[in-house]
Specification:
Helix 5 crosses helix 9, helix 7 runs antiparallel to helix 8 and helix 8 runs parallel beside helix 9. It contains nine helices and no strands. The chain has about 190 residues and is mainly alpha-helical. Helices cover about 60% and strands about 0% of the residues. The longest helix is centred in the middle third of the chain and has 20 residues. The radius of gyration is 21 Å and the shape is elongated. About 5% of the residues have low confidence.
Amino acid sequence: MARATITATEAVTAVLQDLDLGMPGRSHASGMVIQNIAVVCNRGSELFLWGAGKHSKLGELIGRTSIGAITESVRLNGISSKTQASTLCRLQRFDISIDDLVKASGCEFNAFVNELCDSSEDPYLVSVISSMLFLNDEIRWGLVPKKEALDAGCNMLSAALNVDIEGCGDLRSALIKAYAQYIKDRVSC
């Protein structure tokens, strides 16, 4: 029963991470405070499956059912991978506002925001920002050393956005600086 619960919880986590449904400034390892999970079995059934971990048929069925239920619940609440596939949505997890980016760019507000919105659904840019979110989560969870992760993140941002950023103190600041420069390069400021 414990394995069934763990498998269901891992399925919930997978959906929440895939759709990036964490709260700004908070880790989203499981995304939920309380989960009600019922594990029921029919002892009279002729069919008996051993194990409920993710590497068993029963575990697969539990995972698929949980993923389907969570995905449908999220969809019914107006959220989908399409609504989440926006740089502006992803930046909210870093607590980065449009004003933060405009200020860092030094550009005129309307021209900058128009370009920012026009490019906000570019899958390449969404993936760049998403990679910084995952790297930031790994730092907070203690999975990678902070200095090495910051260096890697700054190098990734520089290469991916073709901008120069120096003095990477934290990923949030580096992302503001790099993304603001990237958009500024596309606007005549």
